[in-house]
Amino acid sequence: MNIDYRLQQLLGRATCRLGKGARLMRTAKIRNIRGNSDCITIGANSIVRGELLTFAHGGRIEVGSWCYIGENSRIWSALRIRLGDRALVAHNVNIFDNLTHPLDAGQRHRQIKQIFTKGHPAELDLDERAVEIGEDAWIGAGAFVMRGVTIGSGAIVAAGSVVTRDVPDHAVVAGNPATLVKTIEADRDQAKRS
């Protein structure tokens, strides 16, 4: 019997799939509203201290191996968010692949009313756009990564940045909206990390 099945039995709800050596720390929150443990996968040796959430109408979160997700960070998916191997997400980071609520006020009220009375709606359009975070990327504390963004391999997002556009491989971005600060030389030591 693997650990995620035991957790699901204890909690009576879907959780996630944990790779070998992966850990959910005391502060971790798995909110798999979608109800399918296969929709949140955490790779080998990764550590999660933050919140991973899939919406009822969709969502998939894929965390690679040797990743870190810091305390009070939120990764909310209604489509697909993928973190490549060795990606680091500091504390208080928000990563969303959707708007979280409809733009139209009437639709927004209907969504909230349903959440309050019946639970998250199984059908909803939140203008979802997948998010990709490359291998060895580092997302600094307090950053926001918005829907549809790809952050390249080895890229760094400075603390407090709001990322609304793609970030190239080995780039450093900062600000609101995040803009290119500099590029860094590709790590020639990749073989040692394996």
Brief account:
By secondary structure, the chain is of the alpha/beta class. 13% of the residues lie in helices and 29% in strands.
Task: Using brief descriptors, characterize the structure shown.
alpha/beta, 194 residues, eight-stranded mixed β-sheet
Give a written overview of the molecule.
The structure is a single chain. By secondary structure, the chain is α/β, with parallel strands linked by helices. The protein is 13% helix and 29% strand. The protein has three helices and 20 strands. The protein has helices spanning 3-11, 105-117, 190-193; strands at 17-18, 23-24, 29-32, 40-42, 47-48, 51-54, 61-63, 68-69, 74-77, 81-83, 88-89, 94-96, 131-133, 138-139, 144-145, 150-151, 156-157, 162-163, 171-174, 179-183. The strands form three sheets. The protein has an eight-stranded mixed beta sheet with strand order 2-5-8-11-14-17-19-20, with no helix packed on it. A hairpin with a 4-residue loop joins β19 (171-174) and β20 (179-183). The longest helix has 13 residues, at 105-117.
Number of domains: 1
Biggest sheet, strands in spatial order? Answer: 2-5-8-11-14-17-19-20
* Top CATH class: Mainly Beta
- Compute the number of strand runs: 20
Output the radius of gyration: 17 Å
Helix/strand-derived category reads: alpha/beta
Characterize the overall form: globular
Might you state the CATH topology name? UDP N-Acetylglucosamine Acyltransferase, domain 1
